[in-house]
Structures are given as C-alpha cells and as structure tokens.
Amino acid sequence: MKLSKIFSLLLALLLVVSLTACGGGTTAQTEAPETDAAAGTEAAQTASEPVNIVWAGWSGEEEASKDIFQRMMDTYREQTGNEVTWVGWTWDDTAQQLLIRTQGGEQLDIAQVDIGIFNTIAAAGVLADWNEVLGADYMSETFEQSALDVGNIDGKQLGMPWSMASITMVYNPEILAAAGWDTVPTTIAEFEACMADIQAYDPEIVPYAVSTKDATCAGDFMPWLWTFGGAIFNDDGTVAINSEAAVECVQWYQGLMEKGYIAMDTGRGEARQLFAQGKVAFYDDAVVAKGQAVSNGVAPEDVVKVCSAMERPVLNAGDAPQSTMWGHMLVCFQDSEYKEQAAQLAQVLISNEVALDYFTNNGMPPVTKEAAALEEVTSDAYLSGFMNSTATARLEETARMTNANEIKTVITEELQYALLGQKTAEQAVADMAARLEAL
Amino acid sequence: MFQRTTAFRIFFWLCVILIGGFVFLPLLWMINTALKPTDLTFTSYFFTGPLTLDNILHIVTDPKIMTYLKNSLWVSFGSSFMATLVAALAGYSFSKFRYRGRKFVMGMFMMSQAFPQAILLLAIYAMMNKAGLLGSYWALIISYVVFTLPVGTWTLKSYFDQIPDSLMESAKLDGAGNLRIMLQIVFPLAVPGMVSIAIYGFVWSWNDLLYSMTLVTDSARRTLASGLVMTFLGEASTNWGYMMAASVVAAIPVTIIFVFLQRYFIQGLTSGAVKG
Predict the structure, then answer these.
(1) What average pLDDT does range A82-95 have in this prediction?
(2) CA angle B39, B44, B45 (to 5 degrees)
(3) CA within 20 to 30 Å of B199's CA: A76, A184, A215, B123, which one?
(4) Contact B52, B46 (CB under 8 A)
(5) What is the number of structural domains in chain B?
(6) Domains of chain A: residue spans and CATH
(7) B43 and B69 share one domain
(8) What pLDDT score was predicted for residue A295?
C-alpha cells in the first residue's frame, strides 16, 4: 500500500515534469520580442536607442495590401531607426484578437481598426487619446473636423482617421452600357427600370447583389431604410423601426426579390466575387472594392471602367442620397510604453508619400487635409464617386452601440423571413421592433 | 423479425441516405468547388460542368501552404503524443490506485469540459504570455493537451478498469515492479484506447482555429487552419476555389490516419461502455 502511494506520487510528479518540460522550450521567435521589449524600456527612458513597436490589424495580412504594408514599415524604419513588428489577423477576427491581446498584457502599441469595430475597442477603455499623444492642435490642423468626429467619443480623440469614405453603391459601367444605360439611375424608379433592362439584356446577371445574409445585410438595409424615410432608432435611443417607412422599405425588398433583381444567400464576399466576374451589375461596397478588381488582374487605372461608385438612388428627385460611413482608423493603446514611437508610425502612415502609395495601389483614400487636396487624389475618377456619396454619409445607427451585432442579427433575420415569404413586411417590421425593444 | 421486412429496409435506407446527405454533401460540395475553375466558382453545377486541378495544384505547390501543413503536422503530432502520454499516466493512476483526493481530481477533470474553450482562451493567453511561450508551437501544444486530457483520461481510465487487478497481482508475485507492470503489462493491453485518444487529440489540434490564430501570430509558424483563413479570407476578397482546394488538401492527413487506425479508434472508445 505504501509502495502504491509512492508510485502514485511518482506518476503525478512525472505528469508535472512532462508538462514543465514541454513548457520550458522557448523558441527564439518569442525570445526576440522580449529582448527587444526590454531594450525598448530602457530606450524609452533614454529616448536614444531604437525600440520595437507592435502594430496590429488585418490589411497587412491580405494579398492585396501586404506589399504596401511592408513598404510602410520600411519607411518607418528608415525615417525613425525604430523597428516595427506587424501582428495580423483576419478582418473578422481583429476586434476579438485586439481585446485578447490587450487583456493578456501582450505588447501592443498601435492598431488599425475598422469603423465597425472601433466602438467595441473604445468601450474596453484601452485606447489612448490622440489629443494627448500628438496634441489637439496637430490633430485639428491635420484633419477635417468631420473626419475627427468619427473617432471622437465623449470628447476624447480615440481614433485617428486613416482612410475614410462611404459604403455606397458600386456598378459595372460596361453592363449598364450594354443594357442601354449611359448614365446611372438617380431615383428608385429609374433604378428598378435599369435592373429590368439588365435582366432583359442578360438573365444570368444578378442586377443588384444587395447583401441578404450575415452582418452586411443589416448594413446594406440601413441606408435603404433611410432612403424611405425610416430609422432604426430615435435620437433618444428608443426603437423607431416600427414605421410605415420601414414597411415600405421591406416591401420594396420583397418586390425586388419577386422580380429576381436580388438574390438570397448573398453576402459581401459573394457580391464582390460575382461582380469581379461580370455577373453582378450593382452592389454596395467601400473603396476596398478596387483591391478585388486589381487582384483579379484589372490594372489600377482601368478599375473605373468596370467598377465605379455612384450615389444611392433616392425615393424622390431632390432627396439626399444615403450611404454609411466607412473607414479605417489608427488607435494607440493606453498601456503602450511607446506611444511616442507609435505616434511617429501614425505620422508616417498619413504622410503624403505613404498615403499616396496606399491610395494608388489599393484605392484607400487619404484623409489628411494636405493629402486629400493632392492632384492625384482629387482627379481620381474611381475615388470621386465614393467621395460624392461621403458628403451625405452617416455612421451606421449601431456604430456607437455595444450590442451592435445583436441588433444587426435581429434586423437580418426578420428581413430574411420577409424575403423568404415567411412573414409579411408588416409582421417582419413589427417583430424587428419587438425584438429590438427586448434587447 | 422486423428487421427483415421491406418496410424496415426502406426506412433504413432512407435514414442512411438522409444522414449520409447531411454528412457528405458539404464535403462533396467542398471538393466540387475546389475543382471548379475560378470564374465558375459561384455557378451551381455539381461535378457536371468543367472541372480542373488548377486550384489543387496551386495549393500543393505553394511553399507557404506547405509550411502551414508542416507546422500543423508538428503541432498535431506533438500534442497528440503528449496528451496520450499524460492521459495514460493519469488514467492509470485513477484506475489502479486509491489515494486521498482522487475522486475530487477526477471530478475536476470532468468539470473542466464544462467551460467553453473560447472562455478559457483569455486565461491561457495570459499564462502563455507570462511563461514566454506566446508565438511558439509549445503554446499550441500545451493548450491542445489541456483540451484533450479530460476526455483522454476518462476514456483510458475506463479502459484500465477493464484490465483485471489479478493480472497485476500475478505480475507482482512474479517479482515485477509497479513501473514494469505499467509499461510492460497494462499499457500494451491498452494500446487501442491510447490510439483512439491519440487520434482524438490529433484531430482536435488539426482543426483548431481560435487558439492557433490567437497564440501564434508569426506567419511562418501558423498552422494550416489559421494560415488558410489568413491567406484566403480578406476584407475585400475571398478566393473560395483556393480555400476549398486547401481544405481538401488539409483533410488528407487526417483522413489517412483515421482510415488506417479507425479499428483502434472505435475499439478504444467503446471498450469502457461495456464495463460491467
């Protein structure tokens, strides 16, 4: 019995040793940042030795922008003598991963965030105020106030505008021309007539690949809801969607579905892919649409021939075209020991040279006053379509809400019920309202 | 008698077709998409239109994908081996020794399964950070061992329970020590159970996305699941043809392992169920 106890203890010891042994092998890859970080701490004190900052996001992982991001980092290294380490995930996972990294205490100095996830990150209370890092004067001298407002929460400039425009409608000029349309439709009536002509020209083409699934469905629905005069919420935050305008909007969606102008099971990804293959005439997208076209072999200067932005058609002539704000921001982290160096990187990223490179090759519009006024930017036919819509663009109604995903899921599900004929427009809208009120 | 009736046979085959459809249709669709030319990715034909090996060839000749594959093999084999070893030792201890706290620890092992893995991620991330293991294969291997251990330990404990104590007592009478009994008598009899746990651990590691994406951020060290997602799913573009081709390639090692070892897997998982 005694021997058994000793043996069981030995087994337990072996278990612990085996786990410890596997935990003891640290790779060179993980040691390096620690060494750098240690060196960086001293350097921050002396402000003389180079440091290694960590920059996170998603675009540096993507084929369409990977090389551009390498050039950005090379420029930073050359100009400052500091090192920068890129940490990337997918666009979908970035918010979650940024929060895990900040909560886990891992080094994180600066990150790229989408407008859609900005509020989530800001709500975690981990972001530094750019007005304190770079100075309020620098910020107001560099950016337009409208751009700054997007990254400002409760008076704190938690997001630095990096690239901003709108999510508006994109169309294929070649398809429209073939269907007999030399100009884009400006009203909903014209839009429907145009889609009918496109369908008559080629029934294989999906006239309008509006998103009917995932998070982008609610994102596409919002500007149409505004177009019909509706809204999801009132100014005081109460639910406003149970309205005639919302019912009309859903009925309009149902009409498009019945006529075969839109299709179920279409997300942004499918729309982009089909659009790039010339099988979609219209869909909603941001300037990043250019990246898909370039990836598919279209020369950057020729993108506008097959992919142009237009203002969303309005209900009545003279109405303001609706679109949602889109953009990427740079955020600096409160716990960063290298805010100064992170700010240097931000300044490199918004510099004319780097911003133009990003703009030319990836279509990302610069936002500094100086860069936005450059001839290359103002004369760009591709961008101008987006910038026209940006003038009246609004943040998504859920942009400042912590339960944005839940709200979008409710809207998407109820809209899908209506499109599948499982609910009338009235029922779907009433259920949307009831479910949103219950959140 | 009922089994021999025509009605039963019709019912049986309908069930087989229905369940088979649920299980295999997504896999066949994946292969179908992998074999379609890029410009026909979103067409709805099912093996009846033009098919090409271009996507598959692109994947198998892409050094980056092959690096991900190699990384996945390292991590999956490593975690599978370690999980089996530790689960065998723990299961043996729980089964054959009586000591204070044994049932409590066994209960803790079982309870650990009740927590969603996503919730444990934050704690594991912080621990790996403190240990300086973030970014290394070890961070993944240890995490996967942790998740395989509860099921592995309980399965192997059930397996060891079936091995009669009289066998061990006979060995003791013949002068064998505890270590020798364990290594030369009990463990060889438990090989099917160990193989089933090894396969379970391997598949778990192979398919994981969340931990591999979070704990390893250096692209050269990424495993296949996270590498594929990072490579082919972008903000502005998704290449479904390559994605599906890569998924087909990724499924091959697991399929091969399972085909060769499925006998042990089924035997190992069901052995404890018949214990009287």
Answers:
(1) 92
(2) 90
(3) B123
(4) no
(5) 2
(6) 51-164+326-390 (3.40.190.10), 166-325+400-438 (3.40.190.10)
(7) no
(8) 67
Same domain, residue pair B230 and B206: yes
| Model confidence at A114: pLDDT above 70 | yes
Nearest to B126 by CA among A55, A110, A22, A102: A102
Statement to judge: residues B110 and B46 lie in one domain: no
pLDDT value for A42: 42
Of A216-230, A238-252, B101-115, give the lowest mean pLDDT range.
Answer: B101-115
**In this structure, is the dihedral angle defined by the CA atoms of residues A257, A258, A264 and A266, taken in order, positive or negative?**
negative
Alpha-carbon distances of B37 from A86, B54, B203, B238, B244, rounded to whole Å? 34, 7, 30, 15, 12
Is A32 or A323 the better-scoring residue by pLDDT?
A323
**Chain B residue at shortest CA distance from A286:** B236
- Minimal Cα–Cα distance from B127 to chain A, Å? 8
**Cβ separation A3–B178 shorter than 8 A:** yes
Burial A347-379 (b: 16+ CB within 10 A, else e): bbbbbbebbebbbebbbbbbbbeebbebeebee
Cross-chain Cβ contact A97/B214 below 8 Å:
yes
ipTM attached to this prediction:
0.74
pLDDT tens across A177-193, in order? 999 999 999 999 999 99
Residue-wise pLDDT tens digits, B103-135: 898 888 888 888 888 888 888 998 998 898 988
HSE at residue A131, side-chain half, CA atoms within 13 A, is 13
Q: Is the pLDDT of residue A65 over 70?
A: yes
Q: Clarify whether residues B27 and B144 are in a common domain.
A: no
Residue pair A58/B165 in contact (Cβ under 8 Å)? The answer is no
pLDDT exceeds 70 at position B4: yes
User: For residue B1, what pLDDT is reported?
Assistant: 55
Alpha-carbon gap, residue A139 to A130, rounded angstroms? 8
Q: Domain ends where: B21, B36, B52?
A: B52
Average pLDDT along chain A: 86
Domain that holds residue B7: 1-52
Decide: B149 and B83 in contact? Cβ < 8 Å.
Answer: yes
The answer to whether the Cβ–Cβ distance between A61 and B122 falls below 8 Å is no
Euclidean distance between CA atoms A391 and A147, whole angstroms? 11
Which of A1, A4, A35, A93 to substitute to test the interface with B, most B CBs within 10 Å? A93
- Whether residue A38 has pLDDT greater than 50: no
